[in-house]
Specification:
- This is DASH complex subunit DAD1.
- InterPro entries: DASH_Dad1.
- Belongs to the DASH complex DAD1 family.
- Its main location: nucleus.
- The protein is mainly alpha-helical.
- It has one domain.
- It has 3 helices and no strands.
Length: 95
């Protein structure tokens, strides 16, 4: 907002109003500049996060594969559990 030359016809209220409007305008410009700086900073943070997306997927695949390998290892190492029928038959077969 451009400052107008003060004319003697302006009242005290009008002068103060113009000063406050100018101060608000300056403050709004400052807020806009700070919001723009925050936006650039957030965009930078999001960009860095996106760079790690493929690495995250790779590690996720690795851990999933390791978990599957561990489950297969456990499955092959432990004997199958005895069912109730086979547990009853064993004592009979010994006699």
């Amino acid at each position: 907002m451009t400052t107008q030359p003060e004319s003697p016809s302006l009242t005290y209220f009008e002068k103060q109003r113009d000063l406050l409007i100018q101060e608000i305008s300056n403050s709004m410009e400052s807020v806009l500049n700070n919001v723009n700086a925050l936006n650039r900073s957030l965009e930078g943070g999001v960009a860095v996060g996106k760079e790690f997306d493929s690495v995250s997927q790779l590690w996720g695949t690795f851990y999933d594969g390791m978990a599957q390998a561990e489950n297969l290892k456990r499955k092959h190492e432990t004997p199958p559990p005895l069912s109730a029928e086979s547990a009853e038959e064993e004592p009979e077969s010994r006699n």
